[in-house]
Amino acid sequence: MRPGPVTVRPPATSANLGPGFDAFGLALELRDEVVVEALPEPGLTVEVFGEGAGDVPLDERHLLVRALRAGFDALGGQPAGLRVTCRNRIPHGRGLGSSSAAICAGLTAARDLADGGALVLDDDALLDLANRIEGHPDNVAPALRGGLTIAWTQQDPDGPRRAGAPQKPDPAGHTVRQPEHMRAFALRLDPVPQVAAVAFVPPNRLATEVARGLLPDMVPHRDAAFNAGRAALLTAALTAPGLSAHHRAELLHAGTRDRLHQGYRAAAMPDSAALIRRLRAEGFAAFVSGAGPTVLALTVGPEWEQKAVGYAPPDWDVMVLTVAGAGTAGGAGPVSGAVRADTP
Question: Rounded to the nearest 10 degrees, what angle do helices 123-134 and 63-75 cross at?
Answer without folding.
Answer: 140
